[in-house]
Amino acid sequence: MNLQNLRTTFEPALRRVFHLYWRFARGMTLGVRAVVLDRDGRVFLVKHSYVSGWHLPGGGVEVGETFREALRRELAEEGGIELAGEPPLHGLFLNSHVSRRDHVAVYVVRQFTQDRLPEPNREIVACGFFEANTLPTETTQGTRLRISEVLEGRVPMATWR
Predict the structure, then answer these.
(1) Which of the two ends of the chain, N or C, has the fewest CB atoms closer than 10 A to its terminal CB?
(2) Residue 18: how many CB atoms within 10 A of its CB?
(3) What is the pLDDT of residues 50-96, one digit of tens each?
(4) How far is CA 8 from the centre of its chain?
(5) Looking at the domain assignment, is residue 77 inside a domain?
(6) What's the CATH number where 43 sits?
(7) pTM for the whole structure
């Protein structure tokens, strides 16, 4: 087995192990996600290599990084999306499905640029814009809730669900 085959075989498992390690090693984890809406009202979703389902783009806030800096970085990494304005905060959520110490800030992004959809890579295996009423069947419940809250103008729940 050559190095490339080894990497392809073991890298997803190693990512999951490190992801779990950081979830338990840190006292509290902070994350950001975005409900990114294009001019047609479609929402941008990503599918990761290390967790099942379709999700809002986002990720962890690194030490010394603000929520908005993390949001800007994650959107660029996962979707080739560059913010073109200041996105409003939709809400702060306890994501107890991941950990009782995991909190996520969700922003609504309507002003952005994106030259093209990124090619699949080791972290993001698929991404795209979807109509809210025809989301992929594997879209997570928490993702669906955040989208419906934003589009229907409902008060956000306190938990991710």
Answers:
(1) N
(2) 12
(3) 999 999 999 999 999 999 999 999 999 999 999 999 999 999 999 87
(4) 23
(5) yes
(6) 3.90.79.10
(7) 0.82
